[in-house]
Amino acid sequence: MFSNFDSEILVAARLLLGGAFVFAGLRNIQNAAFVTQLMTTRGVPQARLVLWLGIVLQIVAGVLVIAGFWTAPAAACLILFLIVATPMFHNFWDHQGPERASRINGFVGNVALTGGFLALIAHLL
Predict the structure, then answer these.
(1) What is the largest CA-CA distance in the chain?
(2) Based on the number of CB atoms within 10 Å of its own CB, is 51 exposed (0-12), middle (13-18) or buried (19 or more)?
(3) pTM for the structure as a whole
C-alpha cells in the first residue's frame, strides 16, 4: 500500500511530533518548580499533581507516537493536552509587546502541532 519512501516520511513525522513532547516533558521536569508556580497563579487546583500528570502524559504519549504503538490514541491524548495547555501557557491576549509576540508564536506552534496530529490520525484511519 505504501512505498518505502512513504513509510520513511511517516516514521520521520512520528519522530518529530512525538519527540517534541518527550523533549517538552523532560524540560518540564527541569522547570517543575517554575511551571507549578505559574499553574498555581493561573488557578489550577493541585498544580503540582496536575503538572506531573501532564509530564507523564507528554513523555508516554510522545514515546508511543515515536514507536508507532497506539499511535492514534496517543496522538488524540496529546491533542487534548494541547487544547488544555495552549490557552494556559500561551495567553497572548493578556500581554503586549515582545511578550505578546512570543505567546502568539507558542500559540500558533501548538495549533500547528494539533494539525500534525490530526493528519497523523487521518493517515492511520
Answers:
(1) 51
(2) buried
(3) 0.87
| Ramachandran class of 46: left when φ > 0, alpha when ψ lies in -120 to 50, beta otherwise | left
Distances in whole angstroms, Cα of residue 54 to Cα of each of 7, 30, 71, 78, 92 = 30, 14, 18, 10, 22
Residue with cell 498555581: 40
Distance CA 26, CA 95 (A): 27
Direct distance between the N- and C-terminal alpha carbons of the chain, in angstroms, rounded to an integer: 14
Judge contact between 59 and 25, C-beta under 8 A: yes
The C-alpha cell that represents 48 in the structure block: 503540582
For residue 45, what pLDDT band results from cuts at 50, 70 and 90? very high
Q: Which of 81, 73, 70 is nearest to 20 (CA)?
A: 81
The contacts of residue 27 (CB under 8 Å, 6+ apart) are none
Residues in the chain: 125
C-alpha cell at 53: 500528570
**Residues 53-109 pLDDT 10s:** 999 999 999 999 999 999 999 999 999 999 999 988 877 777 788 888 888 888 889
